[in-house]
UniProtKB/TrEMBL annotation:
A matching Pfam family: Brix
PROSITE patterns according to UniProt: BRIX (PS50833)
Protein's recorded name: Uncharacterized protein LOC110768779 isoform X2
InterPro entries given in the database record: Brix, GAG-pre-integrase_dom, IMP4/RPF1, RNaseH-like_sf, RNaseH_sf
GO cellular component: Mpp10 complex; small-subunit processome
Gene name in the database record: LOC110768779
SUPFAM superfamilies: Class II aaRS ABD-related (SSF52954), Ribonuclease H-like (SSF53098)
GO terms classed as biological process: rRNA processing
Organism field: Prunus avium
Matches recorded under SMART domains: Brix (SM00879)
All copies of domain Brix, residue ranges: 1-185
UniProt-recorded Gene Ontology molecular function terms: rRNA primary transcript binding; snoRNA binding
Amino acid sequence: MRKPPFVKISIWRTKTLPELKLVFPNAQQMNCGGQVISEIIETCCAHDFTDVVLVHEHRGVPDGLIISHLPFGPTAYFQLLNVVTRHDIKDKKTVGTMPQVYPHLILNNFTTKVLATRRILFWGKSENGLYPLKFSPNSSFHIFPNRVALLGLRVDSSVWHSHLGHPASPTLQFLISHNKLPLSGTKVLCNYVCHSCPLGKSVKLPFSSSMSVSTSPLELIHSDVWSSSNKSISGFSYYVLFVDDFSRYSWIFPMKLKYEVLSFCHI
């Protein structure tokens, strides 16, 4: 059975630790001190860690990253260049609070996906917790207020039948031709049979008149069992209803099989 991730972060200094704790929120941290890498790996293996992240620093600036999957690897080595952490930024308002600017470390087969152009699309300051997009006049991105662009797609007449409230074929043909709705076919399907229309338009016969009179609750109980055309998310296909003749109080019990009605008769 595959173990859940249990990450140990080893670092020589503590200033970078808050940044890494955001990337690995469930990890445990450890100050390397005078330990060598082999001793750290042996300690992590002895305590059932699945991964270890080693951050190497030079004068307080991270310059190397080692990620190893325990106990037999693989191990990836990364060189960190021009790293700037949050505690190095003097104006904290430009980057927002910790939850607003969440760092993401995306590794796929130990390679980082970076766009080939390395182009920055947008940048700006946070204003009241939001990041508004402001375009310069010379920008290649333009915003036209009160302008809407729509893309039309030709669909089958059965789709229009569902979108327009399940009208009859003559009504559907009139709506499509009068409003010039995009249609994938050449004409409306006259012999199309909708699955929902017969179910929605069917009428159940009323109950016959009853001469029975109840004078107290639970003296007379009416019961009915019916099935659903589609199973519910929990897998129920049948329902049994009990109605108290005196108080009109009702009980509804879902069932997966019809014979389960017998289990409710003793209630």
